[in-house]
Specification:
Blueprint: E1 45-49, H1 53-64, E2 69-73, H2 76-85, E3 90-94, H3 102-112, E4 117-122, H4 127-135, E5 140-143, H5 148-187, E6 191-197, E7 202-205, H6 208-213, H7 217-220, H8 234-241, E8 252-259, E9 265-275, E10 285-286, E11 295-296, E12 298-305, H9 307-321, H10 331-348, E13 351-360, H11 362-369, H12 371-387, E14 394-399, E15 402-410, H13 413-428, E16 431-433, E17 436-438, E18 441-449, H14 456-472, E19 477-480, H15 483-505, E20 508-517, E21 522-534, E22 538-541, H16 546-551, H17 555-575, E23 582-586, H18 589-594, H19 597-608, E24 615-620, H20 623-626, H21 628-640, E25 644-650, H22 658-662, E26 667-670, H23 672-675, H24 686-697, E27 701-705, H25 710-719, E28 723-725, E29 733-734, H26 735-749
InterPro entries: Biofilm_reg_signaling, CheY-like_superfamily, EAL_dom, EAL_sf, GGDEF_dom, Nucleotide_cyclase, PAS, PAS-like_dom_sf
Domain EAL: 492-746
Domain Response regulatory: 45-159
């Protein structure tokens, strides 16, 4: 026995109240309800509306076995309240209700945009009710009485249609999302994606083309690909844009230059990975029953902008072969070009010149004004040299202040001298650096192919030798290579190797040249001078080997040895109780700058128990140029420990009297070049007199070097200089000879 449905009591309806569809407010969120919930595996929610309780119960009974979720209302207000509170898939409405009609309820549903299907159940016989319901969107209109099968079929069809509509909407949304995603991915791609028809005309292109080429999509669609291709790349482009192969055989990584908008050619280069679409790509081949073979209908391609990569590669390549500072070819590019020039000269039987250019005094400018100004000077020099070259010549910077140039197709050596003269002339004009005028010159060595060498290394080596030859001869000039330079260079290398062995082999010895008080004949001091007992060349003076020591980094080691040897000899003489004499030691600027000289001297004096007042350090005037602040600090430290300072070769170097006030100087030594000018004791030699006057005025000792004649000694003594050193009195003596001299001098005084 079927029981009546258990439903909530109907909401009391006040039929006397004026109720219309417009009186019901729109509730938030109702228009957002989706019908996608009507799925085959979910129960449908139905609203049954009828004012006859018996008919409503019967309707409920008919539908409850179908598995639906059923809600009932006996008046229009109940129905609207339920529609506001819940989503219903289907509403079965009676048109005649005590408060509002079914048409009014449908108006509410339509106005609020509720996604609810409507089936009208009505006993009216007139056609107007049915027409009004259908106009308002009712799915169907059943006239009472209706059969059970008719009702169930109508409800089932309505729900089935809802499910189909919902599925269609879902598929449409999915397709729309898929299309949007596809277009987003395609248009957001960093690559140009395009398709061409079988005629080579663009049928699709993404937005990236506009960003790279400045061309709108509409400007490309329908146009032939050739409108974009650089004229020089059209032949290669044919195989890219007419590609018909698929898979691994398709065209890949072909670089083409494309034209930009307004007919301007862009610098963009593209790396094209072009393939013809096959069965799994985009259906670019048509497979039909009527076609015996797949039909080709277009090309699909991807073009990647590799402009920045190409620029970076070009920059890296350029920097690998050019000097960053001067923009000249570097050593690698120079050698490569010179190699080609030698091959051509050999084929044509022409001569070729290689020049090695080294700037004179560049280190002085660099140290004085700083490296930034030094770089500016190199840039200006490079510019001047380039403007003095012949067409076809190659100028390069090897590094530092060294430049090389080769002159191809040389007619004779005179051609090389003309270029060298131009270089020297263009460098004579002053350079402007930080508001100062700077003057430099250059030393140029020249080697000629094939006479001076047939390989790159031989020509560069021989040009370098010729450059050092002109350096030794006074700089600011040029010199051609001569085979005799090879022997001289070999001797330098041999000398350097022998000097390194001399330090360890005991071949060095200290000699001493006495300094005499001309009034009394007494030995008041001596200058320590280094000698080398060369196993083959005999006794060498310091001037014959110390320049090589400075060039090859041996000066500090040799100076360390000299300081140790001098202190050892002085300590030995002091132990014999001979009247102590002051020993002077000439120190190179290099040793004073880098050799920790003052601490080393202090340690040696302490080790050998020598009074600091017994030692005098000689420096040249040029020490004031190298690093005046550092030199002043070092010399003041010497004064603080009690060691005196002498200026050697006074008048031949820096020639500024300001340093005599800044530095703690005790003695001035007149250079022997001024002493040699003295030929008569009663003549007038103003330079010598001026130096003696300066020393006396500043309260300094003055010593004359290189005194060799009685006339020189007489003139100096008469002028007020009584301390002398030279062959007139004594030549440099070995340590043992000097000790014997001290013995004899002490015996005469006794």
């Amino acid at each position: 026995m079927r029981h009546p449905p258990q439903r909530p009591p109907p909401i009391p309806c006040d039929v006397s109240k004026n109720v219309s569809a417009d009186n019901f407010p729109s509730l938030p969120g109702l228009d957002a309800v989706s019908a996608d919930s009507v799925a085959a595996d979910q129960p449908a929610r139905l609203l049954l509306v009828d004012d006859e309780p018996r008919l409503l119960a019967s309707l409920h009974a008919l539908l409850e076995d179908e598995g639906h979720e059923l809600h009932t209302a006996s008046c229009g207000r109940d129905a609207v309240a339920l529609l506001d509170a819940h989503h219903f898939d289907l509403a079965l409405l009676d048109l005649r209700l005590p408060d509002i009609s079914g048409h009014q309820i449908m108006d509410v549903i339509n106005r609020k945009g509720l996604d609810t299907s409507i089936i009208i159940l009505s006993g009216e016989t007139g056609i107007e009710g049915a027409i009004g319901a259908l106009k308002r969107g009712a799915y169907d209109y059943l006239r009472k009485p209706y059969s059970r099968e008719e009702l169930l079929n109508t409800v089932a069809n309505a729900l089935r249609q809802r499910r189909l509509e919902a599925e269609n909407r879902r598929i449409a949304r999915q397709l729309d999302r898929s299309e949007k995603l596809y277009r987003y991915l395609v248009d957001s791609s960093p690559d140009i994606i395009y398709t061409l028809n079988e005629e080579g005309r663009f049928s699709f292109v993404n937005d990236r083309a506009q960003q790279v080429l400045g061309l709108e999509r509409e400007q490309l669609i329908g146009n032939h690909y050739s409108v974009l291709i650089h004229d020089e790349d059209l032949d290669r482009a044919y195989y890219v844009f007419n590609e018909r192969r698929v898979g691994e055989r398709a065209t890949r990584n072909v670089e083409l230059r494309l034209k930009a908008a307004n007919g301007r050619e862009s610098n963009a280069v593209f790396e094209n990975s072009v393939v013809t679409l096959s069965f799994n790509s985009m259906g670019m081949y048509v497979n039909g029953k009527d076609a015996p073979e797949p039909g080709f209908f277009g090309t699909y391609g991807v073009a990647r902008d590799v402009t920045e990569r190409k620029r970076a590669e070009e920059m890296i390549s350029y920097q690998a072969y050019h000097d960053v500072l001067t923009d000249l070819p570097n050593r690698t590019l120079f050698r490569d070009r010179l190699s080609m020039a030698i091959l051509q000269a050999k084929r044509k039987e022409h001569e070729l010149a290689v020049m090695f250019i080294d700037l004179d005094r560049f280190k002085l400018v660099n140290d004085t004004l700083g490296h930034l100004r030094g770089d500016e000077l190199l840039q200006q020099v490079a510019s001047r040299l380039k403007n003095s070259m012949r067409q076809g010549d190659t100028l390069a910077r090897l590094g530092g202040d060294e430049f090389t140039i080769f002159l191809p197709e040389l007619q004779n050596r005179h051609d090389a001298t003309v270029v060298a003269d131009k270089f020297l002339e263009t460098l004579r004009a002053p350079f402007e650096l930080a508001g100062q005028q700077v003057h430099i010159s250059a030393s140029i060595g020249i080697a000629v192919y094939p006479h001076d060498g047939e390989t790159i290394d031989e020509l560069l080596c021989h040009a370098d030798m010729a450059m050092y030859q002109i350096k030794a001869e006074g700089k600011n000039g040029y010199s051609f290579y001569d085979p005799a330079m090879q022997e001289a260079s070999y001797q330098k290398i041999t000398l350097e190797q022998s000097l390194r062995k001399a330090l360890d082999g005991g071949e060095l010895e200290m000699f001493y040249q006495p300094q005499i008080d001309a009034r009394t004949g007494r030995i008041v001091g001596a200058e320590g001078l280094m000698r080398w007992h060369h196993p083959e060349r005999g006794l060498l003076t310091a001037g014959e080997f110390l320049p090589f020591a400075e060039e090859n980094g041996l000066m500090i080691q040799i100076s360390d040895w000299m300081l140790e040897a001098l202190c050892r000899d002085v300590a030995q003489w002091n132990r014999i109780h001979i009247d102590p004499v002051r020993l002077s030691l000439n120190v190179s600027p290099q040793y004073l700058d880098r050799g920790n000289f003052v601490p080393k001297l202090q340690a040696a004096l302490a080790h050998y128990d020598i009074p600091p007042s017994q030692i005098e350090i000689e420096v040249t005037e040029n020490i004031c140029i190298r690093n005046p602040q550092h030199a002043a600090e070092q010399l003041h430290k010497l004064g603080e420990i009690g060691v005196s300072v002498a200026i050697d070769d006074f008048g031949t170097g820096y020639s500024s009297l300001s340093y005599l006030h800044r530095f703690p100087v005790n003695t001035i030594k007149i250079d022997q070049s001024f002493i040699r000018e003295i030929h008569q004791a009663d003549a007038h030699y103003p330079v010598v007199l001026a130096i003696i006057s300066i020393a006396k005025g500043l309260g300094l000792n003055v010593v004359a070097e290189g005194v060799e004649t009685p006339a020189q000694a007489a003139y100096l003594e008469h002028s007020g200089c009584t301390l002398m050193q030279g062959y007139l009195y004594h030549k440099p003596l070995s340590g043992s000879q000097f000790l014997q001299l001290l013995y004899r001098s002490a015996a005469r005084r006794a």
